[in-house]
Amino acid sequence: MEIGTEEYRRLEVHARRIAVQQSEAIGLAAIRLDCGCIHYCGVSFTGDPVGPLTRLSVDNAPAAICLKCRRPDDRLSHRIEDRLMIWPGRPEEWPEPELRKLIAHKVFGDNYRETAG
Q1: Are the CB atoms for 25 and 51 separated by under 8 Å?
Q2: Is there a contact between 102 and 43 (Cβ–Cβ < 8 Å)?
Q3: The pLDDT value given to residue 12
């Protein structure tokens, strides 16, 4: 299942906030897991994480992590259903297409979607 419209709007807000708070962040990488949890973090020009990996609460409340994500032996990589790169700001502020592709490929490999914030 892909990241939905309402979830995307909330991620846009986080992308803009991260870009302001973390000067080295130029984008936001987000994954949606099979349980519905969405995890995201800022991404630098080199494709490295900026700041902590954060969980997006489905109901906009500080909800506890779901039981599936809480299991210590669980690997998230095989549970990913959607991968999304968000570039905050106006199109003229985004990195060049080749750099965006390079960054997203370093973060996710070939399997990702890209959208503007």
Answers
A1: yes
A2: no
A3: 86
Rounded distance, CA 44 to CA 47, Å? Answer: 5
pTM: 0.84
Cα diameter, the chain? 43
Q: Using alpha carbons, list the distances in angstroms from residue 76 to 21, 27, 86.
A: 27, 21, 20
Distances (CA, A) of 41 to 22, 28, 73, 92: 11, 6, 22, 22
Buried b / exposed e over 41-54, threshold 16 CB at 10 Å, is bbbbeebeebbeee
The amino acid present at 61, given as its one-letter code, is A
Paired tokens of 117: 């914030």
Counting other chains too, the contacts that 50-57 makes at CB distance below 8 Å and 24 or more residues apart are 50/18, 50/22, 50/24, 50/25, 51/18, 51/21, 51/22, 51/25, 54/14, 56/7, 56/10, 56/11, 56/14, 56/30
Q: For 36-66, how does the pLDDT look when each residue is reduced to its tens digit (9 = 90+)? A: 888 999 999 999 999 998 888 655 555 567 7
